[in-house]
Amino acid sequence: MKTIAFFVPQYHQIPLNDQYWGEGFTEWVNVKNAKPIFDGHRQPRVPLNNNYYNLLDRDTKLWQRDLAKEYGIYGFCYYHYWFNGKMLLEKPCEQILADKELDLPFCFCWANEAWSMEWTGQKKVIMPQFYGERKEWKEHFEYLLQFFKDDRYIKEDGKPLIVIYRPESISCLAEMLQYWKELAVENGFPGLVIANQSVAFARDGRGDGSQIDYDIEYEPATSRRCMSPKKLATLKQLRRDVMTWCEKHFGWDLQRFGVQAYQKLSNTTRVDYDAAWNNILTRKPFSKKSIPCAFVDWDNTPRYKERGQVYTGVTPEKFKKYFGKLVERAKKDYKTDYLFIFAWNEWGEGGYLEPDEDNRYGYLEGVRDALKAQHEFPWEEVK
Fold first, then answer.
1. CATH assignment at residue 39
2. Does a structural domain hold residue 160?
3. Does the reported pTM lie above 0.85?
4. How many CB atoms lie within 10 A of CB 197?
5. Which residue pairs, CB below 8 angstroms and at least 24 apart, start in 263-270?
6. Phi and psi of 36, rounded to 5°?
7. Rounded to whole angstroms, how far apart are CA atoms 252 and 113?
């Protein structure tokens, strides 16, 4: 089974972050500064052996590769930040491309939202997201092409896999993706495989999905959506309409617009981990295009503080049990060998497989044991 973990590259210094959040800012700053906001709240989270790594260090990437293979992660899905010709946080993947010893399969998820200060409570947009026309689409494709050509890049029947975080925000979606597929053929590939990560796009038909091959039932967003009170559906729909319209026309980042008010109305500032996993394991796949997704944990208070959301009752033992059931469902109900996981290293949102001081390797051991029990471990034993 191809277990693919989402991977955040914001663990190295870049000039733009230095400018807006202070010299030396990385995601580790948020993680270290986290505070508990209620009794029993497990914050701050501390990496095992205080391993606040720099992602530009080669030894860090070798360690992550070895850890992934030892515990059954097939590959990483790196978030890719492209803003109509400008990039952020691109150096780690460019280093990986140049270093063949870092031989873990990988793919990209285009995180196509504005770069903003929203998580600080400010509405300032630092780098808006616009999509341009064929000239700009080709420029973006040609940057990605060097990765697509690499033997480590994840492909399906020779077609490179790329995930799009929020396709509903792209007004030219179908035209752009069709052009990308044509460019892929021109460059010797049979085409592209394109997956959607947005629950709003998958559930609401919010955009032309004719060029989308898969819908990842991204967690915990999908279960949270399915568990939401129906009486608030109109409010949620209005929020999404406003947010998407502003993103398409102005490049604004309104991802958190109205979230705190909605959480208070729906009593979802704290969410039960068992209830979320029960939804994941009992609901039917949305469609034949659906790909299942697991989640380790969710707690984004390091970024959003009291405006954040926390899942309660989380343990490695529960994750192992639930993950094992999802592996079984992936084969039986989804009929796919893809299984995405939130996440490898989302420390600022509480979703990480990497070891920490409290649970050590517990979540990684859960993945390994569940895959071996189902005879789906993707690697030979690491000696």
1. 3.20.20.80
2. yes
3. yes
4. 27
5. 263/309, 265/232, 265/235, 266/228, 266/229, 266/232, 268/224, 268/228, 268/309, 269/308, 269/309, 269/310, 270/38, 270/309, 270/310, 270/311, 270/312
6. -65, 140
7. 8
**Vertex 113, ends 111 and 115: CA angle to 5°?**
105
Cβ-based neighbours of 155, under 8 Å, separated by 6 or more: 161, 193
- State the Cα angle at 277 between 30 and 241, rounded to 5°: 65
Helix axes of 173-186 and 134-148: crossing angle, nearest 10 degrees:
50
Q: Please give the Cα distance from 204 to 195 (Å, whole number).
A: 16
Helix-helix angle 91-98:134-148, to 10 degrees: 40
- Please say whether the beta carbons of 46 and 356 come within 8 A: yes
Q: Containing domain of residue 303, as a range?
A: 2-373
What whole-number distance in Å separates Cα of residue 218 and Cα of residue 109?
12
Strand pairing report for 115-116 and 290-291: unpaired
- How many CB atoms sit inside 10 A of residue 282's CB? 10
**d(C-alpha 310, C-alpha 45), whole Å:** 13
Q: Are 348 and 304 in contact (CB under 8 A)?
A: no
Residue 310, pLDDT above cutoff 60: yes
Cis peptide before 285 (omega within 30 of 0): no
What pLDDT is recorded for position 319?
98
Burial label for 157, CB within 10 Å (0-12, 13-18, 19+), is: exposed
What is the rounded CA–CA span in Å between residue 325 and residue 320? 9
Q: How many domains does the chain have?
A: 1
Nearest Cα neighbor of 343 from 111, 117, 123, 78 is: 78
Lowest mean pLDDT: which of 13-27, 239-253, 260-274? Answer: 239-253
Look at residue 241 and tell me if it is in a domain.
Answer: yes
